[in-house]
Amino acid sequence: LYSSPVRTAPVVALSAVCRSGSRPVWDGNQFVPRLILPLSLSWDHRVIDGASAARFNSFLAALLADMRRSML
Fold this sequence. Notes:
Elements (H helix, E strand, L loop, with lengths): L12 E5 L3 E6 L4 E6 L2 E5 L6 H16 L7
Antiparallel strand pairs: 1-4, 2-3
């Protein structure tokens, strides 16, 4: 279901997109089926701060969730 990309020098960061699938997600009242796309990010902690990498991964997830944003 998930993978962890293996980063080798001189690569600083590497992102992986896994196979999407439908999974039950709790919406507050009931479980509803949602399409889930797992994302993984590996980075060199000596070069990139963990908070910056997390913000990038969140930005990439938001961009993939709404393709209209990529056209702006």
